[in-house]
Amino acid sequence: MPILTSDVDTASAAYLHNREVQSAAVAALNEQLEIVAAGGGERYVKRHHDRGRLLARERIELLVDRDAPFMELSALAAWGTEFNVGAAIVTGVGVISGTECMIIAHDPTVRGGTMNPYTLRKNLRALDIATVNRLPVVYLVESGGADLPTQSDLFVDAGRIFQKLTALSSIGIPTISLVFGNSTAGGAYVPGMCDYAVLVDKAAKVFLGGPPLVKMATGEESDDESLGGADMHTRVSGLGDYFAIDEVDAIRIGRDIVAHLNFRKLGPGPTQPADDPLFDAEELLGIASGDSRVPFDPREVIARVVDGSRFSEYKPRWGTSLATGWASVHGFPVGILANTRGVLFSEESKKATEFILLANQTDIPLIFLQNVTGFMVGAEYEQGGIIKDGAKMINAVTNSTVPHITVNMGGSFGAGNYGMSGRAYDPRFVFTWVNAKLAVMGAAQLAGVMSIVGKAAAESAGREFDVEADAKRTAEIEAQIERESHPFFISGKTYDDGVIDPRDTRSVLGMALSAAHSNVVSGRRGFGVFRM
Ligand code: COA
């Protein structure tokens, strides 16, 4: 297979500028991740430890295999909102007893581990990832239930958690709950719906109503243990399958349950040599543009991400604003689509369509490296059928059934986001580089469009156009869109599965591909490959 070369000049002004901007963005990301890892903060962490309990991340660390990585997802959920960044829950893919699982852990140090609307989004996304990739779910439960002041944005959709858990079980994906503390009211249905429930002695509290509510409802005097303790549930009600003497014991039992699931991946293992790229991933910080309006050659990225920097380019001389080709990542064969110059023309759209069909014909997963400003506009292109050609690409992306993994490297704007397998097109995973932006269009363009529309409206109404007010409004809109295009904001809304350091791309793709191969990897059959 052809091997990529590199033209990167590490002494050039552009490289040094990019490096500076990207490094600052990575530092800002790390700062946020530290805040996330601190949970509810020192006071609540100390109180939790003083109660003899482990933190959510400590539980996960003990649960996963020694030295196995944990790919955390949606770490920045709720960023920029009134809620704690991280949204009081930790989710991610980790290897337990040799099996890749989706781990979902409440963080009891943040408002008692209660669920706000962002917690719910993050939780549901984790369950969706488990479903499409066929990953067993291990729930680490300790939650006060609903964040009550936000119940109206929460209550109805929260039912989906239990619905999805049941649906997972019905398609042969095991679900396991380890209950460390509160799991009351609606929360009781987590152990209720999971295939296995492990309850920690003197800590698990699994009941529909606690003692005060029972007293109010029926006048009965009761206590936590008789209503929902581990001893009662494992001896009397039978809800608990396993009695754990403490947290570490519960984790041991959880690992043992996964060990005997006899869970086998349905996709093939890595089939290609998984040798390192020939070029240094460190250089990605100088390659990725510091300014999202300045494109860069994605082959420089591919050369630092794929096995042995091998890349067999498909149709390299046609539709050159999009690079397409075959490679492998950590031994998993992949097809890659990567924007080279931002805009997608008709040729690029047709080339992408053909390439996606080819990947489906041979069951090869696709990686979309986005840096796209949208489909080309203008009379020439409209008359040339750009809408029809974009529609072909979007159709192919929609109906492709091989796993898609999407990485926004710089910008993801307009319908380019859709064609390049944006979140609405159900890629298995979506990641965003630290300095990438996402919006319907760039902030300046959007503000400019609004200004033109305002001027036309004033003219047609016979009003005088207030130039000064327009300039102020334009500046405000531009600032707003700039803020909303920021990767932390996008991740805060869980429109992706995480913001990543560009240097981690190969590792993240490798883990995502491995997870995707837990399920069958099978392309769409039925049409053959249309020559466009
Ligand atoms: N909604 C919103 N905030 C809540 C909450 C809820 N359901 N439950 C707790 N909080 C807040 C508390 O007000 C407190 O805030 P503060 O520290 O700013 O004062 C913080 O979370 C921690 O609560 P605290 O009670 O000190 O923690 P704890 O670890 O001792 O107990 C709970 C945690 C969850 C067991 C306990 O708070 C509780 O029983 N909450 C009510 C649970 C409930 O009824 N949920 C509804 C189920 S549908």
Automatic annotation (TrEMBL):
It comes from the Bacteria. It holds the Pfam family Carboxyl_trans. Residues 22-273 form the CoA carboxyltransferase N-terminal domain. Residues 273-519 form the CoA carboxyltransferase C-terminal domain. Belongs to the AccD/PCCB family. This is Acyl-CoA carboxylase subunit beta. It comes from Mycolicibacterium komossense.
